[in-house]
Design brief:
mainly alpha
Amino acid sequence: MNSLPTLNACLNALSACFLLVGWWMIRHDRTRAHIVSMIGALTTSTLFLIGYLTNHYLRHGVVTKFTAVGWIRPAYFTLLISHTILAVVIVPMVVMTVIPALQSRFDRHKRIARWTMPVWLYVSVTGVLVYMMLYHWYRPTL
């Protein structure tokens, strides 16, 4: 159970890597590699969500507190709030991006993906940062 936050952070980091590779591949007209990368991003993000929900279910009632003081405290909560809001927003955005691609409506896919990709990347990267700040940079109290 204690390893789930670490696993989730790794899945978020992998998702960010897949997103960047997928973006690079489509910019260089490597469509098949783009598809493979984006399937990797979708898979790792889905596994992250399953792990995140499992972790919160298993730790019901247990709160990990961020105890740091000074400038880092408001910085952490600003990052956490923006990450949390965009993590909720990104789920329907990804669905709205994937469906046109599956329907071979690439004009629509591209138009939506221009918004989805940076938000998804932000959520993946900030997820890792939140994990690092909460579990490694400052000692949490339970």
